[in-house]
Each structure stands twice: as structure tokens, then as C-alpha cells.
Amino acid sequence: MGETASILAEVFVDTIGYWWVIIPTIFLGLIVGGIPGFSAANTIIILMPLTLAMSLETGLVFMVTLYSAARMGAGIPAILVNIPGTAGAAATPLDGYPMAKAGRGQQALAMSFVASSIGGLLTTFLALMTMPILARVGFYMHSVEMIVVMLFGISLIASIAAQDMLKGLIAGFLGLMIGSIGTDVVYATPRGTFGFLELYDGVPLIPALVGLFAVSEAFIIIEKKVIISEDAEPKNPNWQDTFEGVRMALSRWWHIVWTSIIGLIIGVIPGAGASIASFVAYQQSRAFSKTPELYGTGHPEGLIAPESANNGVTSGTLVPLLVLGIPGGATAAIMLVVMQFHGVSFGPSLFENQPKIGYGMFMAMAVTYLLMLLTILPMSRYMSHVTTIPTIYLAPMIISFTLVGGFVPREYMFDMYLALGFGVLGYVARRTGYHVAAILIGVILGPLLETYFLRALKKSDGDITTLFSSTLGNILWVALALSLVLPPVFNWRRKRKELAER
Amino acid sequence: MIFSKSMDRRSFLRTGAAASGMALALPGIARAAGYPERNINVIIPTREGGGADRNFRAFSSVWKTKLGADFEPGFFPGASGRVAYEVYMGKNEPDAYSLIFGNMGPEVLNWAMQAPSFDVNDYFYFGRVDTDPGCLFVGAESPLKTLDDVIAAGKTRRLNVGTSRMAHPASIGLLALGEETGADFNLIPLSGGKNTIAGAVTGEVDFSVLTSGSVIAAGEAVKTLLVFGENRVGAALNDAPSMNDVYGTDLPEMLSARAFAIHKKAADDFPDRYEVLSRTFKETFDDPALLEAYVANKGTPEYLNYGGPKECGAFMQAMLELGARYKPMLTGA
What we know:
The complex is a heterodimer of chains A (502) and B (333). Chain A has 502 residues and is an all-alpha fold. Chain A is 73% helix and 1% strand.
């Protein structure tokens, strides 16, 4: 233990010595994370020749920093202009954007940065301390258990539907239907592809994301002069809003802690990712809130939950990579290639033979989050002015950037048309009172749910009772039922008590 | 060219007419003198940055020095390679200035499961770069430690077996193993190599089958028990034996085999261009720089393995036949 502590201290000091790599990479990460389609994984691939030419330590610090910064960067346009940079930030605009529209964009950014940094820092140290235990999570979370985790996220549709039951459910089911387009995951039978080969692998996520949120938003804001509401109080650059955002985040420290832990746990499951974590955290946050009705209107906790969770995923992803040699996501898979290029072997022997590499990646993440807080937080006062740019300039920029973003992941013109199509769908949905978030949840989580469901059925030869065949799965089913049933009961009791007190 | 003084006007005209007629009759030869005059476009059916991309860059970095022209990759991922082949066959000119760099194993199996919109005989693979055999492996903590354990367990209960996708050479290897031994296997597609390894390691499935290059990369997390082909890397695959050696079968190697293919019409219309391509492709294997480039791009050196049109054609045919044979099991039809 003493030896490990001294290695950790040594590695921490060494990592700070890489500030000259970390700080420029933070800004690069914020940019690539903020532009839809330009993820950390894509950027690392593009820069791979450079990464391979670096020393192993420098390359790892570069990749880890880019990964963490891109995760945080994805939240910035999600808050300011309703464009989630990645699917992991898809739940961020639900409350972040209403805050920006109300002239509280600076507070929202500061709150998001603090929640992301603290969530990321906390889960990095938690992952370091509990790595052997966390690495076992994947051994228990199989397809049956993942079905229930997916249902936690999908049940958000019901929460959204609570505001207008019929429209909410129609939007949710439309999303699930769109999500089922493509070949089925078992026998690759095409469904609903209308003959388009580009849809065989399902509806590509980024075009759907940018279309539903960003393009439709551009159509909406063009009807106004600026993003912020006319009744919002215009503000000059000031530090007070930043400090207020920091205070609002810190006063909800417990919320940051438990939602980031949700992200950490989901992050260590191979194949699961930030999109699942952020929706599950948002759903749980809303379910156990005393003011669930405020979610979706610019509620601070609705912003903190997804941002803490998706940064919790970042450190979680490193656990199966380093302990088991299993990359949990695309970025981790590229890290694996780079590490193997330098002859690093994975598994338990990594921490015995090259402990500075294993611990160094976590330390790089911790130092990145610390430096991000110091470098990015002061910038929130300037970033928030995006909401005051006249929409005649902003809307075309949003559409151009997002269409390019839709094109980038696969480089198909088809995907740009698809983004435009989703933009029109999103615009019509908004104008007619359907919630685009409900559609998007179906599009993102529907295919994942179907994948785990069909896999579970295939494993059991079609026996539906397999859904209740595992102890952990059954515990999760009970937790899901409770999280759906208890909040309305608590609400009812609270209202009854308030009435009695009057 | 210096005219012979003895060449009279009549013989000059005769020779000129013959040359012109030949040029018109064989336009390929006439135009091939300067081939290649521009870069060669190469369609790749996967995303940029993946194994195929690295493999392509390694090979083309040496091939271009023999050919005298560079290669420009275009990435068309999706539908298990189907998008790229449809683009290549449907939109690219058959002029020997465009090639496709595919994976003969899984991509040809696709055609056996669901025919493409073009005739599969309208293109052919002429240059195989490497051969990576499929293998059967268990997670490090699996209770199944040996091949005998796997077969014995498979005779008492149905074993769930992870595979990256149903129509994959490794899946066929497993089905053949089941037929040979009487063990009962249930293929579970886990969508990609990463998940297939994770499935075996975490116990989502009893064990998995996958191309061995990815399994080698997983290191200590897994243990290989059987190779559906020759084990060219020995200890890197835990000295696992080949299926044919263990059971005396004559199963063709179940390979992921990356190869360059060309429109048949291009080879027919421009035989000399095709000759330049196939000759320089073969010469590339004689250059020691290829091995260096291949290893630098994370290739397993033992898998670098030249194959010409004959070897590629035989493998493609074997995949089509095996695909047709196992189609009901791979498609649920």
C-alpha cells in the first residue's frame, strides 16, 4: 500500500510536468468535442501518426486529455445553442438550453464545468481505489441486466409524457420505431431501410442528433432576433454569474457525487457508454427530486446529472481497458492500439510490470480535470455571449456546422440529407408540441435495448423468463419498479401534507 | 526511331496501317504505355483508422514505389462491407484506375447470405495481402480450460458461443466443429471483435470465436484452444492446434483475408494495365520494406501471405459454397 502511494505521488508529480501537452490538448479537445461528428476517437485516429511518434507517456497523456476535454466540450454547444456535440451530451440541453435561453447561459456553463470536473475527478480517484472490484462489474452485467439499465433510461419518455401523455408517448414510440430501422442484430435481416444501404447499420446517431436538436433549433431561432428570450435581462460580461454557477454546483455536491458514480459504473461495462449513463442519471435525478416538475425548464439538477455522469464514464472506461485489456469504447480501442504499438501488455501484470503506465493514465485524467477547471471556467463569461449573436448569423452557422458534423463520421452525403430530414421532423414536432427529446431517447436507446433483448432471447432459445433469471437482474427490476412508483407516491404524500398544513 | 533507308513508302504505309489497326482493336494496349498516368483510387469497406486502413497504408506505401503511382483510399463503411462493394461496382469506372481492398472471408460470405445487386463474378480478387485464421478461445477465468472441456460440455448442454457476426468464417469453423464432434453450439452475434472478446472474458457467453489477430491483441485476458486453419504464431495463440490436425477434417482455412480486387471488365478490356497491377503487387512481396511497414502498422508478420488470383478465386469459391451450405443456420431461415 505504501509502495503504491509513493508510486501514485511520483506519477502525479510527473504528470503535472506534462502541462505543456495537457493545456493545448484541453483546448483541442473542447473544440473537437463541441463540433458534432468530430469526436475524440476521430481526432486520435487522424493524429495517430503523431501519437505513435511521441514517447509512450506523452502519447498517453495526450489521448487521455483529449478524451476528457472532448467529453466536457460536448456540453458547451448543448447548453448554448442546443447542439449536443456527441450522443453522450444528448441529455445536457434538456435543462442547459432553457437556462441559456433565459439569459443564464454563463451560470449554466460554470455549473456544467464544475459538475464535469468534480464528477470526473471524483470518479477517477474512485476508479483508482476500487479498480479490482470495478473490473468485476462487467462479469455480472450481462444482457439481461443491461435490458433493465436501458429501461431506466427509456422510462424518461414516460416522465416527459407526463406533461402531455398522448403526445409524449407518440414521440417516444416514433423514436423507438426510427431506432429499429436497419438490420436486426442476430440474423442481419434488413428492416425499414427502404432500399437504402446507408441505413443497413441503423439510423446513424450524429445526423439524427444534430437534425433533431440543432437544425430544428436553427429553424426556430431564425424567427427571433437572438437566442435569449426577449424578457430575459441582458447582461454585460461579469464574474458574478460565473461565481453563482460555481456556487449552485457546489451546493449540490451530493448530486454530483451520486450521478457521477452512476456514470462510473456504467462506464466500466464494456459496450455501454456515455449516452446511456447521462440518460439514466437524468432519469434517476428526476425520479428522486422534490421538484420533478421543474425538470426540462432549466433546472440546475437536470444539468448537473448528465454532465457529472458522462464525465464519470470517462474514468470508468479506463478500468476494463487496463485491468482486463478490453476496450470499453471507440476511444479506448484506439488507446489500446497505441499502447500495444509501444509494447505495453494489459491485464493485472500491467500494474506489476509497468505501474507508472497504469496509474499514469488515471493521474493524467485527474490532472486534466484540475487544469480544465482552472483554464475553462473563467472563459464561461465569454462563451455565453454566443446566445446574444443575432440569429441571422447564428442560424446559418449552426446549420452549416451541424450538416458538416453529420457528414463527418461516415462521409456520406446521405447523412447530410438525413440530418436535414430530422431537422424538419424536429421543427414540426416542436411547432406541434411534441417533445424532440422523447424522439431522441427512442432513437439512441431503442437499438441498444433491442440488441440486449434479442441477445438474451437468443441465449435462452427464446425463453422470455430469462429476463428474470439472474439475481442481480431481479434486484435491478425491483429498483426500476421502485424508481417509477415511489416518486409519484412521495409527491402525493408531500402535496397532501402541504394541503393539511394550510 | 530511325527509319531504315531500305523502307519504301509502301511498306511504311503498310506498317503504319497495321499499327493503327492494332491500336484500335486493342485500345487497352494502346493506352497502357503510360499506365498508370494518375493515382489509383481504392475503395475500403471499413472506417478510416481501423485494421483495414492500417493494413492498406502499410501495403500501399511499398506497392506505390513499384507501380509509380500513389493510392487514394476512400472509406465506405456500413452493411458489413456491402455499401463499399455496391459503390465500387455501381459507380466506379472499370478502367483499372479503381480497386477495392476488401476482406475476402466475411465479405464474400455476405453474398451467400444475401445476393448483392451486381453479379459477384463481375469482380475478382487478384492480390491477397494477408491471411488471419479464425480461432476458438475462452476467457482467462472460464471453467472450460481445454478443448476437451468444451466438447464434453457441448455434449451435455447447449453452449452459447460469441461471434462478431453470424456470417463470419469463424462462425462456419464453429458449426463445422459442432458437426464433427456432436457438440451443441448456439452462435450469439456480439457485434464486433471488441464485444466478442469481452463476451468471453466476462462470461456473457461460454466462449467465443474470432479472427486470431484480434485474439492475440487481447493478451492474457483470453486463452486460445483451437485454430480454424494453421497456427502460424505458436505461443501467441497458446500453441493451439488446428482443427484439421485434431479431427482429421479437410475444412478450408477459415480466414479473414484482406485482398485487392478489380472489375472483371477492367482486366478484360485493359489486360496490360491489369498485368502491371498484378506484377507490381507480387513484386511488393519481394521487398523487405513491406515486412517493416506491415509490422510498424501492427500487423502480425506471420500473417503476411501473398496470394494471386488463383488462390483468391479458390478461397472465394470455398466461402460461397460453405456459406450456401450453412445458410439456414446463419440466417435463421
